[in-house]
Amino acid sequence: MDTILEQLRKTNMSHHIFEEDKGSKKDTASSPNPEEKVPLKGRYRCRVCGYIFDEAEEGRPFSTLTECPLCHVSPGGFQQIR
Q1: How far apart are CA 9 and CA 79, in angstroms?
Q2: What is the pLDDT of residues 51-64, one digit of tens each?
Q3: Alpha carbon 7 to chain centroid distance?
Q4: I want to staple 55 with a disulfide (CB 3.0 to 4.6 A). Which of 4, 12, 20, 40 is the partner?
Q5: Using CA atoms, how far apart are residues 79 and 53, in angstroms rounded to an integer?
Q6: CA–CA gap between residue 55 and residue 40 (Å, rounded)
């Protein structure tokens, strides 16, 4: 029986896997300086209780929200507002 690595070499898939790894390293290297802050402008409303999550007021992006602080619904229960 061939090992997985041997099977990959036979199908030439290892080349693609290593290329993807190189690409992911480039992405992190070319990412913006973490000290440069992106302006927090988004506002999101909980569809269940109406709580408004304002990134500027909270001082953090919506992506860090784990649940609504009032009704505990997941971030999927929020809708972006303008």
Answers
A1: 47
A2: 999 999 999 999 99
A3: 33
A4: 40
A5: 10
A6: 5
Query: Distance between CA atoms of 13 and 54, rounded to whole angstroms?
Result: 46
> What type of residue is 45?
R
Say whether 82 sits in a helix, a strand or coil: coil
Structure-token match 């919506």, residue found: 62
Count of CB atoms situated within 10 Å of the CB of 78: 21
- Asked whether residue 2 carries a pLDDT value surpassing 70, the answer given is no
pLDDT tens track for 22-52: 554 544 455 555 555 668 899 999 999 999 9
Cβ contacts of residue 49 below 8 Å, gap of 6+?
68, 70, 71, 73
Instruction: For tokens 């190189």, name the residue.
Output: 22
Q: Where does the chain show beta strands of DSSP type E? A: 43-46, 52-54, 78-81
